[in-house]
Design brief:
single chain, 160 residues, alpha+beta, Multidrug-efflux Transporter Regulator, Chain: A, Domain 2, 2 domains, 4-stranded mixed sheet, elongated, DNA-binding, 2 iron, 2 sulfur cluster binding
């Protein structure tokens, strides 16, 4: 945070929170995590440039897609700080996230298609478990519900 004189672009914390649809605490949290930046005016009041609204929109969209704040922070590090991300910036960002989204879509499709199968929890009480997980073989992969999402691809296919 630094002192700058850009009153024509300045937005208060409350104005940004209201316009972005987040709480003031969320803005402070995002700033603490390095996702957004503010500056102080001569009266030592926290101010944000209007460009922060687009960054917040990107953060919220990415969170809805299941990205962690750390993944979002890393991606935002590739965007300009002093201006709103433009179309080319967004294309760079979307390229970074595309592979991860494709992976998640594949996992969710597999989950949807195999919801009625054994999740590898070790209960052995369901009719399918003695067939799909005899003698609780999936226990060697860890505790709890060791679903096919947690297994290497070849092991998952062997269990179905």
């Amino acid at each position: 945070m630094s002192v700058k004189k850009r009153p024509e672009k300045a937005m208060s914390v409350g104005a940004v929170a209201s316009r972005a649809g987040v709480t003031i605490a969320t803005l402070h949290f995002y700033e603490e995590k390095g996702l957004i930046r503010s500056w102080r005016n001569n009266g030592n009041q926290r101010r944000f440039d209007r460009e922060v609204l687009r960054r917040i929109a990107i953060i919220k969209s990415a969170q809805q897609l299941g990205f962690t704040l750390e993944q979002i922070r890393q991606a935002l590090a590739n965007l300009p700080v002093e201006k709103a991300p433009d179309k080319s910036d967004w294309q760079k960002l979307s390229k970074i996230w595309r592979a991860e989204l494709d992976r998640k879509i594949m996992e969710m499709t597999r989950l949807r298609d195999e919801l009625d199968q054994c999740i590898g929890c070790g209960c052995l009480s369901l009719a399918y478990c003695p067939i799909r997980n005899p003698d609780d073989q999936l226990a060697e992969y860890g505790q709890g519900a060791v679903s096919w999402l947690d297994l290497p691809e070849s092991d998952s296919d062997a269990q179905s």
